[in-house]
Amino acid sequence: MSGNIKPDPYVPNLYNLNDFYHSMAPLTLEQGDDRYLQLTGGTLFGLLFCSNSLSVSGSILLNGTIITASATEINFLTGITPGLASASRALVLDASRNITNINSITTSTINCTSSATAINISGVSGDIVLSGTATSIQCTGAASGIVITGTSSFLTIGPSASLILNSITLTSTGTELNYLHGSTPGSGTASNALVLDASRNINNINSLSTATMSISSSFNITATTDSTSTSTGSFTTLGGVGVAKSLYVGTGIVIPNASGGDMITLTSTSSAARNTIQFITDTQTWECGTRGSTASNPNTFYIYNGGYKLLMNTTGDTSILSTTDSSSASTGCLKLSGGLGVVKNMYCTGTLTLDRNGSNLAFTNGSNSGLIELAASPNMLRVVNGYAVNIGSAGVTIASGSSAAARYAIDLQATANDIQLCLFQSGSNAAYAIGANNSALEFHSGSAFAWYGGTTGNGALGTKLLNLTSGGSLTSTQNLISLAGVHSNSLNTTGLAALGNSAHMHFGASTGSFFTYDYGTGQYGNTMIGNNSIASCSNGYVNINTSSFTQNAPLAVFGSTGFTRATGFGYLASSGSGTATGFTNRPFSIYSEWGIIVGSGEIDVFSDLRLKKNVLPLNDELCSRFIKHINPIQFKYNHDDDREHYGYSAQQLMSYGYTTLVGMTHADQPLPEEKIPTYILDTDGKLGDMKLSGETIDLPGDVRLCVSMIDMIPILHKCIQAQQKAMDDMMNQITELKEKCELMVGARNLNVPTTPPTNDTLDTPTPLRRTRIFTKKKIVLIQR
Length: 784
Prior knowledge:
Elements: H1 29-35, E1 60-62, E2 65-67, H2 71-74, E3 109-112, E4 118-121, E5 136-139, E6 145-148, E7 163-165, E8 168-170, H3 174-177, E9 274-280, E10 285-291, E11 300-304, E12 308-313, E13 318-320, E14 360-365, E15 368-374, E16 380-385, E17 387-392, E18 396-399, E19 410-411, E20 417-424, E21 432-437, E22 440-444, E23 449-453, E24 463-468, E25 474-476, E26 501-508, E27 511-518, E28 523-524, E29 527-529, E30 534-536, E31 542-544, E32 555-557, E33 561-562, E34 571-573, E35 576-577, E36 587-588, H4 620-629, E37 633-637, E38 640-647, H5 650-655, E39 662-666, E40 674-681, E41 690-699, E42 703-707, H6 709-749, H7 759-762, E43 770-774, E44 779-783
Helix pairs in contact: 4-6
């Protein structure tokens, strides 16, 4: 090895490391040879560096494969450039799998099977020569082919060879194939094949002669020669023309058939089909035709424009289906400039308008005639046949004059007759009629007037509601309802006896009366007024607020009520809102704005103990509190400045908790609101002592207070009893003191010791004479 090319000194299979200790020192050639390993056989692992040559007498095993190529064959790889062919060198493709610079290739078969592959011949006068029998060039891959781009290059196929495209052998000669050269799709050119364009069209053909032509799509003749006869125009034929579908003519169709007959025949064999001719303008399309037996509007001739306008059936019945209304002689579905003659009936579901001065409907039946007309002046509708019915803006006139205008809804004009409107008359019988004569309205009836109600059949009467007799009496089997009041200003008792016991309302002798009375027997009955409010008994007594007619007294009032307010009332305390307990609504039976006078007797209250419960003696503290704290007052009422009154303040009674004495009613007029202080018992004081509680009663403006003066009497009575007892006790004490005083005076006169004897001394015997003195408390013996 050369001394300038050294392998890595740390590869142990190349160096004899035992002798290679000074790697930085120069080596002689002999020293260097001693330091390399000597290989005489075996396997070398790793790298092998040769500066000159490597002599191998055996075989080379490379990655498990024995290299069998000779040195000459291996030398074909020397100096190779991938993708470029070189003399005496192997062919190696480049990264795109291409190779160039090949002079020539001789092979039995070339297969191009990959996508977009080709055989490119780009050299000047280059060619591919197939000289073998049954040899071929096949391009079977997608988008594969043979590309000849060189100058004067061509593909030559000999007379015994053939060209196969997609498994089909081309039999055309070169001359025949040259007819395609220079062809333009869609345009005819001389000596070239005809090729259709992308829309399968072709033009620029000079002339085309054929015995039969079948056109499955379209056939355009661009010549503009017009036709003036059967032998002129852009397209002529000596025979007929069969058209399986539509025929479109830009100008017009002329059929000069002097002998007449069916000029145009439209035939359909389908029962559900239609035969039509369309007329198209710039803005609309019309069609007329016939409908098959099972089509919509079957077996009809029709005119259509987005909807059926006219239909005619097989019997000639014609329907105009437009719904356009008519508002004048020139509007509507059908407009006639002349008259209209109708042999049979006319039926109109809309309005028939006659717009003409003096427009009328005249009716003639032989020699009889009449008319219905709308006159210009006055403006009214007349029905005239001798007598006239005139309908104007004010109403209907029935009169002999045909020009009379109505003044009222129904106007019979100025003629006065006892009978103007006859409702019924049979033969010479009396007429049931209405008339006007002698400035009076007359109602004529054979007898009485009767009013019936209910739905019954003809000739049958319903329920009889009201009857007015020929004598003038009016009776009713049903209720009589008045929306403005029922009044009486006189008294007439004729015919009332037949009514029996009945309610009556009369005005006689300057007095209006409502009562129950039997004019046949002369007996009064019971009468109730209002909702069980006033019961007027047959004997003249009156009960109030009851349905009972039991006579308790000449005037009896039942029930009671309290004048209440919707929200109640309460007091406000320091701890929040509460309720003024005990002060309830006071029930009343009679309210009097002023006083009540009793001529004799008295005002009594039931006090039977059997009617009472929870009977207890009055509390001494309550009575003492009343006398101690409640102050009598004198006053005048706001509505009465003349009279002086005596009484108490309800507010003060509330303050001291007299719930039984104070009640409340509703105020008719708002009063000032008020806060009332309250008192509680002073447990540290004497009997009846009170102190402020710190709470108040909120008295609203819609509440009035009342006081039961009668309930005060027991309190005062209890207080008088207490005072009487106190006076009795004081009188006893006075008497006792008086007696003691007398004893003391008597004893002084008798030199009796002033010290009273004890009980023990009272029974002790003494030689002295004893005097027995009796007192109310005890017996005192005075020793003498």
